Amino acid sequence: MSMSDTAESPIRRLLMGVQRFQQQVFPGERDTFGELAGGQSPHTLFIACADSRIVPEMITQTGPGELFVARNIGNIVPPYGEMLGGVSAIVEYACMALRVSEIVICGHSDCGAMKGLLAGPAATESMPTVTSWLRNAAAARSVVAATQPDLAGPEAVQALVEQNVRTQLGNLRTHPAVAARMADGTIAMHGWVYDIGQGRISVLDEDEGRLVSVDEALGRLS
Predict the structure, then answer these.
(1) Helix axes 112-119, 138-147, angle to 10 degrees
(2) Which residues have CB under 8 Å from 160's CB, separation 6+?
(3) How many CA atoms, within 13 angstroms, populate the side-chain half-sphere of residue 47?
(4) Does residue 1 carry a pLDDT above 50?
(5) Whose C-alpha in 100, 143, 155, 191 is 20 to 30 A from the C-alpha of 63?
(6) 53-66: per-residue pLDDT in tens?
(7) How confident is the prediction for the chain on average, in pLDDT?
(8) CA–CA separation, 3 vs 177, rounded Å?
(9) What is the mean pLDDT of residues 76-94?
(10) Do 174 and 139 form a contact (C-beta atoms < 8 A)?
């Protein structure tokens, strides 16, 4: 008997989840999905890591139709023109077609991509595509090495996670669709770092160059 035939198989769990959704969840949200069936109007482009522990809708307590989510290894946004592809297309579509008003780049603790970046190309030599992709975060590694050379272990990973969010925000600004919307003041960008073990988001204050709590960030919006 193959694994897919056993009661504990992942595909069985997925299909049973779909069944529960159809029978228990969807009926209560029928009106919402009915409205969404004809189109979407999300307010935020949420760029997150593909890490299975990160669930943007759970973290932000948002529902269907609110977030336009882009996920990839290391929550990376290549500079415009360097690696045109899925991420660049998502950014352009979100800004120009969907007219989102916010963009969030969310890094997270214990990020495998940042661990691989710290370890160097040898750590991912069996995965050449991953190695190539991580070059888009190489500037973050250089900044951490120059400014915090004595860091090692989990502290170095966390510092790189935080710097990578700053670096990717900079990369995002090179995209024409983003630059145009920023120029007319119709879009705002935000950097977040999610602590998996604590369930805590820290918000980047770019003016002060530090991370602040959600409470502090909310207070500044009042």
Answers:
(1) 70
(2) 111, 114, 117, 118, 140, 141, 144
(3) 28
(4) no
(5) 191
(6) 999 999 999 999 99
(7) 95
(8) 46
(9) 93
(10) no
What is the distance between the alpha carbons of residues 94 and 48, in angstroms, rounded to a whole number?
15
| Three-state secondary structure readout of the chain | CCHHHCCCCHHHHHHHHHHHHHHHHHHHHHHHHHHHCCCCCCCEEEEEECCCCCCHHHHHCCCCCCEEEEEECCCCCCCCCCCCCHHHHHHHHHHHCCCCCEEEEEEECCCHHHHHHHHCHHHHCCCHHHHHHHHHHHHHHHHHHHHCCCCCHHHHHHHHHHHHHHHHHHHHCCCHHHHHHHHCCCCEEEEEEEECCCCEEEEEECCCCEEEEHHHHHHHHC
Cα–Cα distance measured from residue 51 to residue 53, given in angstroms and rounded to the nearest whole number: 5
Beta strand pairing call for 210-213 and 200-205: antiparallel
d(CA 189, CA 177): 13
pLDDT for 2 equals 52
Question: What pLDDT digit, counting tens, does each position of 130-171 carry?
Answer: 999 999 999 999 999 999 999 999 999 999 999 999 999 999
Residue type, 105: I
Q: Which two tokens stand for residue 85?
A: 């592809």
* Tokens encoding 40: 């979407």
List, in sequence order, every residue forming a beta bridge with 195; answer none if it has no partner. 200
Nearest Cα residue to 53 out of 100, 113, 8 = 113
